[in-house]
Specification:
Blueprint: E1 8-12, H1 29-43, H2 55-66, H3 73-83, E2 84-91, E3 97-104, E4 106-110, E5 119-122, E6 128-130, E7 146-150, E8 153-155, H4 160-164, E9 174-178, H5 181-190, E10 192-197, E11 202-210, H6 218-224, H7 235-244, H8 249-255, E12 260-264, E13 287-289, E14 300-305, E15 317-325, E16 335-342, H9 344-350, E17 355-364, H10 365-368
Parallel strand pairs: 3-16, 4-10, 13-15
Antiparallel strand pairs: 1-2, 2-17, 3-17, 4-9, 5-9, 6-7, 7-8, 10-11, 11-12, 13-16, 14-15, 14-17
Helix pairs in contact: 1-2
Length: 372
């Protein structure tokens, strides 16, 4: 384990101590695991996080899953019990883990701008470059993964305010135009969307890059200003506040300097989930966004959130999930974002998830010995 993962300890536990495990049905994960195996073997392995678990560590589990079809929830659980060992992710500061949720919005768009459809989704600009320790200017924080190359100089890329005020206009980067600046902002937060064009065509956009600035939660800003009570904060509450205060929308949105660029994604099956950072379709209710600096895509996590009950008809959320995505706000070893699906209903479910949670990672047997 590297120094970057030194603020937590993977603690070996038994499946018997995983609260809710015996009631879970992880049968739906096997098709996704087959997709992950194809991505790793046919395209390229996933980046190894600082915990030190690699795609190579994961492949024995994925190979076994390729030839396995569960006959029941119990047989699906038995598969993981046979091939993995669970480790509780215990933070050294004593704090519990935390989950939020995300979804894929449905957005009405136009291929051309008019007086109604005025707010663009942009492709990645050609002057946006990836930064690393070799080319990052000393004045830019190490958190900047992107910057602007202009006149042979690298600097911070213009932020949300500058782009909203026209920095990218006239460069032909627009994918489509939406009716609402607030809708565009929340697609940036979610990282993907289904686009519904006027002629009935369905498109899809997914994350391509970001301007590089740190993510700043506007919900936190509104709480600190006393505009929304901390106990009431949710995506829905923020949208209501923005609708009631149109003259303050720009000021609040610009507080989050982070700006997301998109690429068009194929729509082979409009009912399938979006293809996110792990390059496989997300499965609603079973896909988790994690901190990719620490964790490696494709690994199973069992999430138990006692206070999160509205996703499972009043029962505590207890599910085996796969780490398939990441996000600017997902930082830390026991921090996750649950994918709830596509469309308005999924958005209603996602918008109020802010719950403490226990995180256990399932490590394939051969690799698990390194963590005893």
């Amino acid at each position: 384990m590297s120094d970057h993962a030194s603020d937590f300890v993977p603690q070996a536990i038994s499946f018997d101590t995983l609260e809710g495990w015996k009631d879970d049905d992880p049968s739906g994960l096997f098709e996704v695991m087959r997709s992950c195996r194809r991505q790793i073997t046919d395209v390229k392995p996933y980046r190894t996080g600082s915990l030190g678990l690699s795609s190579e560590d994961l492949l024995p589990l994925l190979a076994a899953a390729a030839d396995f079809t569960p006959s029941s929830p119990a047989s699906a659980r038995a598969f993981f019990e046979t091939h993995c060992r669970p480790f509780l992710i215990r933070r050294k500061d004593g704090n519990s883990g935390f989950v939020t949720a995300f979804y894929e919005p449905d957005i009405d768009v136009s291929e051309r701008p008019d007086e109604i459809f005025r707010f663009p989704f942009y492709r990645r600009p050609d002057d946006l470059i990836d930064l690393d320790d070799a080319n990052r200017p000393v004045e830019l924080d190490k958190a900047y993964a992107f910057g602007r190359l202009h006149d042979d100089r690298v600097a911070a890329y213009p932020d949300r305010r500058a782009i909203d005020q026209g920095f990218l206009e006239g460069r032909g980067l627009e994918i489509a135009w939406a009716k609402s600046k607030v809708d565009v902002f929340f697609v940036h937060v979610q990282g993907a969307a289904r686009l519904r064009y006027k002629n009935g065509r369905i498109g899809r956009i997914t994350y391509a890059a970001k301007a590089g600035h740190a993510f700043s939660a506007i919900g936190k800003l509104l709480i600190e200003r006393g505009e929304i009570d901390r106990a009431e904060i949710s995506m829905q509450a923020i949208r209501v506040w923005l609708a009631r205060n149109p003259e303050r929308v720009d000021e609040v949105l610009w507080h989050n300097r982070s700006y997301i660029f998109f690429r068009e994604a194929p729509v082979a099956d409009p009912q399938a989930g979006p293809i996110a950072a792990a390059k496989v379709p997300l499965l609603a209710g079973r896909s988790l966004a994690v901190d990719r600096m620490i964790h490696t895509f494709g690994f199973p996590f069992f999430i138990h959130a006692e206070s999160l009950t509205h996703l499972d008809q009043g029962r505590p959320f207890s599910r085996l999930m796969l780490a398939l995505d990441t996000g600017s706000a997902i930082v830390g070893p026991a921090r996750g974002d649950i994918f709830t699906g596509s469309g308005d209903m999924a958005g209603e479910s996602a918008g109020t998830v802010r719950n403490d949670a226990d995180f256990a990672i399932l490590i394939p047997n051969a690799a698990a010995g390194r963590f005893d």
